[in-house]
């Protein structure tokens, strides 16, 4: 169910009406239960078979979060965190990289002159798994580091994990900024809804007018690049940079706008990255939710830039290598 489809328009209009009705008449718990059900329906429209993965990730990290909060023994807390990380990365690794590593093994063996054919499994990549696994992992990591208190509100937590506007492609939200918003009684704001709708329309313009039209040109150039001049191929690369930006930033703006219409604030994910004056600034303004995630949970724990030049280089390479794996 794409954001720019008539089906999603009908879905969201119905959700919007029921959401605010429940919010105004009942406690936020009923609103959260409805949000969970709506998010699962939204996800099931992509592929219902993978709903179990979201539920499993939610159950595991909700339970581990409570146990981390209660436990005072460091060795037990480390084991609990390891279970959370292994479950989430295990799911992500199996579905996203199993075929990749099998194909890579085949290529290496063929390069070595060995005619071994390892069959590739017919594994389908679950939509959004890269986003919600990182989101739930950050929850348990923050509790382990005692930067966050575990919640005992199961419906708020499940709504935080499965929240449909940002479920498929982010932004990757932290529990410290998003989870608490599900435990607030909302007040409808006309001005906030209008601002959210403007963001949705701008995101649709980026996606439909810019990204989709540039994509047609880029595909034509890349499909016949061997027969084209270097200037034309360079033009294709130039247009692709705007296609991928408008596509991803457009989706993020739609997600932020839709959330704003129901009283939920999501973080800004793109901040005019092509106006950056350096590569460092570019990564601070491109896919901000992912860049800051790797900064806070990989780069800084490795030592960041507070170590020697060689170690800093290692930290940077490790962070970008893992980011590359995340992107597939």
What's the SSE blueprint?
Blueprint: H1 6-25, H2 28-47, H3 51-70, H4 74-111, H5 129-144, H6 154-162, H7 175-178, H8 190-223, H9 230-261, H10 279-285, H11 288-299, H12 309-327
Contiguous helical run count: 12
Low-confidence runs: none
Work out the strand percent. Answer: under 5%
Q: Which secondary-structure class do the elements indicate?
A: mainly alpha
Write a structural description.
- With 328 residues, the protein is mainly α.
- It is built from twelve helices and no strands.
- The protein has helices spanning 6-25, 28-47, 51-70, 74-111, 129-144, 154-162, 175-178, 190-223, 230-261, 279-285, 288-299, 309-327.
- The model has no long low-confidence stretch (mean pLDDT 90).
- The protein starts with 5 loop residues before the first helix and ends with a helix.
Give me a quick take on this structure:
This protein has helices spanning 6-25, 28-47, 51-70, 74-111, 129-144, 154-162, 175-178, 190-223, 230-261, 279-285, 288-299, 309-327.
Keywords:
about 325 residues, mainly alpha, 12 helices, about 70% helix
């Amino acid at each position: 169910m794409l954001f720019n489809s008539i089906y999603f328009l009908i879905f969201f209009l119905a959700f919007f009406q029921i959401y605010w009705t429940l919010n105004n008449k009942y406690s936020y718990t009923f609103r959260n239960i409805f949000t969970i059900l709506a998010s699962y329906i939204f996800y099931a429209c992509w592929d219902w078979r993978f709903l179990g993965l979201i539920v499993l990730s939610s159950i595991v990290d909700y339970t581990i979060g409570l146990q981390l909060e209660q436990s005072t023994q460091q060795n037990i807390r480390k084991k609990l965190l390891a279970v959370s990380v292994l479950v989430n990365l295990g799911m992500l690794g199996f579905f996203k990289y199993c075929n990749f590593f099998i194909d890579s093994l085949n290529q290496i063996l063929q390069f070595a002159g060995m005619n071994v054919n390892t069959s590739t499994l017919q594994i389908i990549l679950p939509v959004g798994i890269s986003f919600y696994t990182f989101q739930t992992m950050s929850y348990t990591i923050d509790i382990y580091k005692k930067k966050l208190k575990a919640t005992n509100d199961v419906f708020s937590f499940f709504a935080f994990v499965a929240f449909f506007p940002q479920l498929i492609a982010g932004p990757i939200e932290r529990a410290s900024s998003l989870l608490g918003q599900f435990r607030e009684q909302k007040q409808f704001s006309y001005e906030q809804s209008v601002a959210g709708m403007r963001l949705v329309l701008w995101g649709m313009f980026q996606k439909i007018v810019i990204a989709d039209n540039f994509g047609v040109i880029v595909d034509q150039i890349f499909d016949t690049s061997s027969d084209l001049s270097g200037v034309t191929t360079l033009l294709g690369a130039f247009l692709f940079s705007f296609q991928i930006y408008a596509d991803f930033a457009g989706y993020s703006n739609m997600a932020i706008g839709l959330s704003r219409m129901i009283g939920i604030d999501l973080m800004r994910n793109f901040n005019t990255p092509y106006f950056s004056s350096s590569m460092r600034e570019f990564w601070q303004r491109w896919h901000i939710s992912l860049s800051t995630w790797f900064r806070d949970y990989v780069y800084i724990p490795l030592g960041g830039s507070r170590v020697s030049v060689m170690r800093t280089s290692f930290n940077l390479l490790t962070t970008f290598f893992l980011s590359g794996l995340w992107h597939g």
